[in-house]
Structures are given as C-alpha cells and as structure tokens.
Amino acid sequence: HSACRPLDDFLAAVRGGSSRVLNLYGEPGIGKTALLDYVSQQAAGCRVIRAGGVESEMELAYAALHLVCAPVLDRVDILPPPQRDALKVALGLSAGPAPDRLLVGLAVLGLFSDLADAEPVVCVIDDLQWLDRASAQALGFVARRLFAEAVGMIFASRLPSPDLGMLPAMPVRGLPEADARALLDATLTAPLDERVRDCIV
User: Fold this and answer.
1) Is the pTM of this model over 0.85?
2) 192 φ/ψ angles, rounded to the nearest 5 degrees
3) Which of 70, 97, 135, 149 could form a cystine bridge with 65, CB 3.0-4.6 A?
4) Which residue in 170, 161, 148 sits closest to 9, CA to CA?
5) CA separation (Å) from 120 to 48, 72, 78, 103, 200?
C-alpha cells in the first residue's frame, strides 16, 4: 500500500544512521495502529521500543514515559547524575521533589543516544492523544532534539500533536475503493451479496 512507502523510507534512514520523526494522524479506526505494526515488523536490525497512551492514565504524570523507559532502565546509570536522579524520581524509582522536566527530557534523549550507539532505535508511540501531559512533553522534547543519532520516533494520534510542533506529520486516510474491495475479498469465507459488499466498502 502507498502509505507504507514513507514508512520504509523512515526505517531506511534510521538504519543509515539518521534521525527521523513522524506523526501519523487520522480518525479512529482508519489504520494508524496497523501502520505502526508494520513499522515494528519491518524494523529488523533495530531496537524497537513501543508504548501507547491509555485514557485512564492521562492524569498520572509520566505513566507513558514509564512504559517507554522500562525496557532500558538497566542503562540509567550512564546518565549524568542530575538527569539520572530526575528520571528515577519521575518513574517512581527514587523519592524526591517533582523533577525538573528539562532534566527528564534530557535523560530520555541520553538513553536513546546511548542505545543507538549499539543499534538503531525505533520508538513507536500509539494513541498520542491519550498520553499524560508530562510524558507527551518529554517525548516531544526528545523528538525535537534528535540530530545525528540513529533514532526514529513515530507517533500515531487523531490530530497532529502540538507537542510535536512543526515536525513531519502524515495524514492516514481510508483505502481507495479497489484496495478496500481487495482487502474484503481476502477476508471473506463465504459468498457475499453485492449490495452488502458495497455497504461494507
């Protein structure tokens, strides 16, 4: 499908040592998660970190960031002490006053950069609109500061996210009719009346 070509280019750039950010957006059920699945499946040779927003956790500061960082917390000690301490407090690993959000963002950027020294990193975030505010700000901060690292960040949301500013965005639209019919035909297990087929398409 034509929507996959920009994603292939995204992955090729990351594998080649470049940073890439992309915000997929479109109405609910249009196929954004399927495209994120495609990215995850095609990211051979990359470290894939995947997380998603959960509506019931929107009021819990750093809940989504915890999902992002949990698989790589064994590397937190490579960070400068102020960043390390801020991230540990944000993720509930240490006690302390509310952490400086700049330090939290720098800590995540540092973790991604460290991981990318070993292999390209692809961070996949679904349902960006349901992320808690603190996590969305931290991930947006990281996305805007990627430069020469082999790190790709791809987000899916219902609308272009203000946290991603002027970073690249791609609308996800419905399938062309011919593709929709081909998809339906591929899943049918019994004959279907043509009028019903038209309604489904």
Assistant:
1) yes
2) -130, 130
3) 135
4) 170
5) 9, 14, 18, 23, 41
pLDDT digits (tens, 9 = 90+) for 36-68: 999 999 999 999 999 999 999 999 999 999 999
- Give 141: exposed, middle or buried? Use CB within 10 Å, 0-12, 13-18, 19+: middle
Q: What residues pair up with 151 in beta bridges, in sequence order?
A: 121
For residue 166, the number of C-alpha atoms closer than 13 Å in the C-beta half-sphere is 0
Amino acid making up residue 120: P
Fill in the amino acid letter for 2: S
Q: What is the average pLDDT across 74-99?
A: 95
**Token output for 177:** 């009719």
Residue 44, C-beta contacts closer than 8 angstroms, at least 6 positions apart: none
Q: How many angstroms separate the first and last alpha carbons of the chain?
A: 17
What 3-state class would DSSP assign to 168?
Answer: coil
Q: How far apart are the C-alpha atoms of 46 and 151, rounded to whole Å?
A: 9
Asked whether the predicted pLDDT for residue 116 surpasses 80, the reply is: yes
